[in-house]
Amino acid sequence: SFILFVFNLYLIIYLSTSDPGFFIPSDKIEMLDKEQLYAQSKTATIELKMCKSCHIIKNLRVFHCRKCGLCVLRHDHHCVWLSNCIGVYNQKTFLFLIYTCLLHCAIFIIFLLYTIFDKKEKMTMTQFLFCVCDLGVIIVITIMFISLAVYQIIFICTNQTTSENLRRNELQRTQFTTGNICEIIREFFKDPLGYI
Question: What is the pLDDT of residues 89-129, one digit of tens each?
Fold first, then answer.
């Protein structure tokens, strides 16, 4: 459990300092022809928009993060716990962190259940209540991690991000989906830029 804790701590530090895919073009574009404001996704032609904060023309699937103050390629969300965006370059690591935290929670639950049921006779009432309260807190945390993991997997399988899902009124929900879930998952784990 200690090794897993150290590994999770390493993942948290890595994710807090990693580049999520900040979109910084070499030069800001001031004037464009009308034809250049459209781009082709796998299933549709989409009008490109200008970021009002960065003053750049945003590529497909680039969203501005208000907290970081920059545009992020395939911006999933800004994680307040990591104080960094989750984007094209660190989403796999974020998913891995979620699952290692789930494993850590499972180890704690097993340990607490063992302590409660096997060592019950040797514990005082205060120790017993402390273990039961700990178990309740860990179960709530586990449920939160499970829901986050399920949402991330659903978004990966439908080739969308949390930002795109929240903006589904502005975007067609399936504009980046090819329809083949196996292909989407393979692209996600193979090449982060191929998933765009």
Answer: 999 999 999 999 999 999 999 999 999 988 878 888 999 99
From 65, 71, 79, 131, active-site residue: 79
Is 54 assigned a catalytic role? no
Which burial class, exposed, middle or buried, applies to 41 when counting CB atoms under 10 A from its CB (0-12, 13-18, 19+)?
middle
15 burial level (CB within 10 Å; 0-12, 13-18, 19+): buried
pLDDT tens string 29-57 = 444 444 455 555 555 566 677 788 887 77
Q: Per-residue b/e over 162-187, b at no fewer than 16 CB within 10 Å?
A: ebbbeeeeebeeebbbeeeeeebeeb
Put simply, whether the predicted model's pTM sits higher than 0.85 gets the answer: no
